[in-house]
Write a structure and sequence with these properties.
The structure holds two protein chains of two kinds.
Chain A lengths: L3 E3 L2 E5 L4 E6 L6 E7 L6 E6 L5 E4 L2 E6 L4 E6 L8 E9 L2 E4 L3 E6 L1
Parallel strand pairs in A: 2-11
Antiparallel strand pairs in A: 1-3, 3-8, 4-5, 4-9, 6-7, 7-8, 9-10, 9-11
Chain B lengths: L4 E3 L2 E4 L5 E6 L6 E7 L6 E7 L2 E4 L8 E4 L6 E5 L8 E8 L9 E2 L3 E5 L1
Parallel strand pairs in B: 2-11
Antiparallel strand pairs in B: 1-3, 3-8, 4-5, 4-9, 5-6, 7-8, 9-10, 9-11
Classes of the chains: A mainly beta, B mainly beta.
Chain lengths: 108, 115
């Protein structure tokens, strides 16, 4: 069963913040976050492996709440290059299920 | 080194025809995955190889779909008697060893159009 992402789409001005949520009805062993630009392959952002784990890369970070079976991706001070569709993937025994994606548009 | 490559980049075929899609993973990666992505959707898992064997083929939609990886490197996804509903972008990904902690690296995909 695929995870559920919210919101489906968000439009930001450069410099604004955004949060993308990912939730699953099944126990999560790991959560993977990817960004895909139109016509391109998904690009890996980060993996979260433990409950409560938080990871960050520059101004993009994520948290993983194992008990709530949720993960959130935080984008701060967004840049134009952040535009794209963000997918969370939840893995159970190498069987990766992706959410439907959140389309993020950053405008000048 | 080179990333994951897929050929062809685009394939247009007629309903009922047979197609083969090729994936060349990152050298040394033992795990290989096939996904299908429809417009506006996330990648949909099809099959996972560990080495030469299909460790999980639970995502293949029906018996028209088959995939092989005979030497543990290049993989071919084969679709028989194609239907219009098979039209999608087929993505391949590879990872070093498979497993929960492993990053999957995606190829550019093959856009399949069935007329």
């Amino acid at each position: 069963q695929q995870p559920v992402q919210s919101p489906q789409a968000v439009i930001l001005r450069e410099g604004e913040d955004a949060v993308i949520n990912c939730s699953s009805s099944k126990a999560l062993y790991s959560v993977h976050w990817y960004r895909q630009k139109h016509g391109e392959a998904p690009v890996f952002l980060m993996i979260l492996l433990k409950g409560g784990e938080q990871k960050g890369h520059e101004k993009i970070s994520a948290s993983f709440n194992e008990k709530k079976q949720q993960s959130s991706l935080y984008l701060t001070a967004s840049q134009l290059s952040y535009s794209g569709t963000y997918f969370c993937g939840t893995e159970n025994n190498n069987d990766m299920r992706f959410g439907a994606g959140t389309r993020l548009t950053v405008k000048p | 080194g080179a990333g994951v490559s897929q050929t062809p980049s685009n394939k247009v075929t007629e309903k009922g025809k047979y197609v083969e899609l090729r994936c060349d993973p990152i050298s040394g990666h033992t795990a290989l995955y096939w996904y299908r992505q429809s417009l506006g959707q996330g990648p949909e898992f099809l099959i996972y190889f560990q080495g030469t064997g299909a460790a999980d083929d639970s995502g293949l939609p029906n018996d028209r779909f088959f995939a092989v990886r005979p030497e543990g490197s290049v993989s071919t996804l084969k679709i028989q008697r194609t239907e219009r509903g098979d039209s999608a972008v087929y993505l391949c990904a590879s990872s070093l060893a498979g497993g929960t902690a492993d990053t999957q690296y995606f190829g550019p995909g093959t856009r399949l159009t069935v007329l």
